[in-house]
Write a structure and sequence with these properties.
Layout: H1 7-17, H2 32-38, H3 41-45, E1 58-61, H4 67-76, E2 79-82, H5 89-96, E3 101-104, H6 112-115, E4 123-126, H7 136-141, E5 145-147, H8 154-169, H9 172-180, E6 198-202, H10 206-217, E7 221-225, E8 237-238, H11 242-248, E9 251-254, H12 268-273, E10 278-282, H13 291-299, E11 303-308, H14 331-335, E12 340-342, H15 351-371, E13 395-403, H16 408-416, E14 420-429, E15 432-440, H17 444-455, E16 460-466
Parallel strand pairs: 1-2, 1-3, 3-4, 4-5, 6-7, 6-9, 7-8, 9-10, 10-11, 11-12
Antiparallel strand pairs: 13-15, 13-16, 14-15
The structure holds 1,4-dihydronicotinamide adenine dinucleotide (NAI) and 2-oxoglutaric acid (AKG).
């Protein structure tokens, strides 16, 4: 046998393959080149728009948002405050008062109580998939657009889930822990191959469907349950009820959003429907599983193991947690159980995912702040006009967020009728509508008047003029 390669050479090999270099990594769609194509060049070279000159814009970034987003905001000249953790409510209220945009991940709760203090806030960027941490309706009603990254970390979650399926099946967590603690325990009883076993996926969206393909490549049979009829990939089969999925799966994995319907969707009755000796994986949201019921099912041996990445409450920052900590409820019980793998909400935590999310959400926030384009907003009408050219003089862009009631366009177009409307587009979503219009032939006084007149309309939620 040849002698082992020195570590220094191994790390060089890693650099070459690009494994530790975010720039060279293979990313999920949309790719880095996609972003390079669409990213701030258009924004940067466009006309500088006010009343926010870029340097006046304040952005608060919490929860260690990726450097790629910081780079985008720095390129724009925005004032950025960056914190690695989320904030307790009172500190958040203080900080949110004068920022124009905030970037968060899954832990920062932007409730009505917090948002009502955010007098200058026009946009929220969730640097993740889930948006359940934001009061989306309150935000929309107050003219605050919310953006997320709908699929940049899906692959990372799917890959982690595959690792967990095999780990549960081989009791990998326990064997690892035993050896770390000085015990050699070579055993094969109740350890299985995953080939030929059935994986039940609850929620066949971006993550669930990606996982389906990976699981089939391992030789697993895949069933899935979703509230929507979704085209099956490969040989997977959609079942018509959650019960059917639970009755027929060796592994059940959850990939649904947090909604009132998914709250505690796996509790005692559902656990009872699972096969004896089956496994449960929750990488979705902590509220989806009734943890005391799961603990009971594991204790009595109904289930042979579980992986939990998400908890009903989670600590704000990395570091030690206390036994019986409120922020990790039921952790003391979970820790004592066999074949239970606990992870600190890392489903989407890879270099590739975080870098792609930073670029994606950083770009859409910049587009919205600088140009008013709301494409990708999750709570808000999606409207865009092409950027104003640098050589266009005396042009003003109107961003008018208003109540979705009859008569608004008549009133607005009466106000605009003295000017040449170069282009105009509007759309509505629920109670809120958003109109973008570029008008030409306006001077400084016209702009002031337009702003005052639009703000004075009874339908006005928020008016921004960019010029
Ligand atoms: N652990 C982690 O770090 C991460 C967790 N997540 C969580 O995973 C969730 C799913 O992510 P994606 O697949 O991207 O979302 P998605 O929106 O693409 O798919 C969710 C699917 O669940 C289905 N669904 C909704 N309610 C349902 C119900 N009551 N019963 C059955 N199906 C239902 C939807 O129709 C949809 O097909 C996110 O909402 C987020 O909460 C996402 C990324 C990372
Ligand atoms: O990485 C994070 O902070 C949150 C990941 C997540 O749960 C999501 O994207 O919804």
């Amino acid at each position: 046998m040849s002698s082992p390669q020195p570590i220094s050479q191994l790390s060089k090999a890693f650099e070459k393959t690009g494994l530790n270099s975010p720039k060279n990594t293979v990313s999920t769609s949309p790719t880095t080149s996609y972003f390079d194509q669409y990213r701030p060049s258009g924004v940067k070279q466009g006309k500088t728009l006010k009343p926010f000159s870029a340097g006046d814009l304040k952005i608060l970034l919490l929860e260690n948002v990726n450097q790629t987003a910081l780079d985008i905001f720095a390129q724009q000249g925005y004032q950025v405050e960056f914190l690695k953790t989320s904030l307790p409510e009172d500190e958040l209220i203080e900080k949110i008062k004068d920022v124009h945009a905030i970037g968060i991940r899954s832990k920062t709760r932007l409730t009505e109580n917090v948002l009502k203090h955010a007098k200058n806030l026009v946009a929220i960027g969730c640097f993740c998939i889930g948006t359940n941490q934001v009061d989306l309706e309150y935000a929309a009603k107050n003219g605050i657009a919310v953006f997320n990254s709908p699929f940049s970390n899906s692959r990372s979650v799917a890959e982690l889930t595959i690792a967990e399926i095999i780990s549960l099946s081989r009791e990998l967590g326990d064997r690892n822990m035993e050896l770390h603690n000085g015990t050699w325990n070579k055993k094969s009883a109740r350890c299985w191959e995953v080939r030929g076993k059935t994986l039940g996926i609850v929620g066949y969206g971006h993550i669930g469907s990606q996982l389906s393909v990976l699981a089939e490549a391992l030789g697993m049979n895949v069933l899935y349950y979703d509230v929507l009829m979704i085209m099956s990939l490969g040989n997977s089969k959609q079942v018509s009820s959650l019960q059917e999925l639970l009755n027929n799966s060796d592994f059940v994995t959850l990939h649904v959003p947090e909604t009132s319907d998914t709250k505690q969707m796996i509790s005692t009755p559902q656990l009872a429907e699972m096969r004896d000796g089956a496994y449960l994986i929750n990488n979705s949201r902590g509220t989806v599983v009734d943890l005391p019921a799961l603990i009971e099912a594991l204790k009595i041996g109904k289930l042979a193991g579980a992986c939990i990445d998400v908890f009903p409450k989670e600590p704000r920052a990395n570091g030690p947690y206390f036994n019986g900590d409120d922020l990790l409820p039921f952790i003391d019980d979970l820790k004592t159980l066999k074949n239970v793998i606990l992870t600190p909400h890392i489903g989407g935590s890879t270099e590739e995912a975080q870098s792609a999310i930073g670029i994606e959400v950083g770009t859409v926030l910049t587009k919205y702040l600088n140009e008013g384009a709301s494409i990708g907003a999750v709570n808000f009408p999606e409207v865009a006009l092409r950027a104003l050219d640098l050589d266009q003089e005396n042009v003003c862009r109107i961003l008018y967020i208003h109540q979705n009631v009859p008569g608004v366009l008549k009133t607005v177009n009466q106000i605009l009728s003295e000017y040449n409307i170069e282009k105009q587009f509007s759309d509505s979503r629920g109670d809120i509508a958003y109109l973008m219009a570029d008008v030409s032939g306006v001077n400084h006084d016209d702009i002031k008047n337009l702003s005052a007149e639009l703000e004075a309309t009874p339908f006005n939620v928020s008016t921004r003029l960019l010029y």
